[in-house]
Task: structure prediction
Amino acid sequence: MRKAILPVVLKAVLFSIFTFSAMQTVHAQAGWNPLKSGSSSDLVAVYFTSAERGFIAGDKGYFAQTRNGGRTWTKQFIYTEEDINEIYFRNENNGYVVAGKKMFLTDDAGRSWREIKIYDPKNFRNATPEFLSVRFADKKRGLIVGSLINKDDEIVDSLVMRTDDGGETWARIIVPSKLELFHLDFVSSSRGWIVGDKGLILATEDGGINWRKQDSGTANTLFNVDFRDASEGYAVGGKGTILRTENGGESWEAVKTSFPNTFLRVDFADDKNGWIVGYGGTILRSSDKGKTWLKQESATKEHLYGLFMMKKYGWAVGAKGAVVQYQK
Result:
């Protein structure tokens, strides 16, 4: 079985030599502290529905929850041994877990999970779906993205599936690219974005039915996208790529830093304050809408794959069970 695409691609990127500037380094006062996850597996996803209740997940179906802000974690079995790529909740009770070609749904705040059938195998006889990211535009309409992989472990097409009934049934949406898709984000019932390989950015204005390409200005892989509203958004990726837009992606600006690392996640807690995580335990912070970024002490050197930020709290997860918490 192919290992989850997100960890494979990220680990395949050549590790960059860090060239940190002393002027851009913020030390321990930044507030990141290590937590014990109880796992040695690589952790890829983290999501909190409150300051106390959250979930982490990663390789070989590892899934755990906390009810005390991450001080302790309880392993939870959700009937899969596939690598988990993402956790997403559209409200406190309704959540989704993406694991390879499977997805699981909860409607009781994560106490129990059931598998949802996303596709009919007969429709993909010569390739296997691999899903990486899920988001909902509203209560009923959602999308899940990834790629199709052939028997030689090669990407042969992009894959977008859409639901109109809260995730019970799904239908494929054809998009104008065959590249691998890594992540998507919605800011309303109509506006959404997808990022992927070779600098790909797709945008929709009708809830995900139709998609068009946007010019990212880069050929580097984009792993994550985060929009604050219909105008302001951010994307991060390989070779230190940080992009920002103030017009919904009609134009993207590359933000220059002295950090050449691969960046894997970006998350803004409010309109001004955002964080980025990536290889080698890298954590960057911006307090000016992403125009400039400072490096923070992360308390780990492990690659950080997942990030979830709130106004006063934040959590990042990564290789070998790494979990670090931010507290303002």
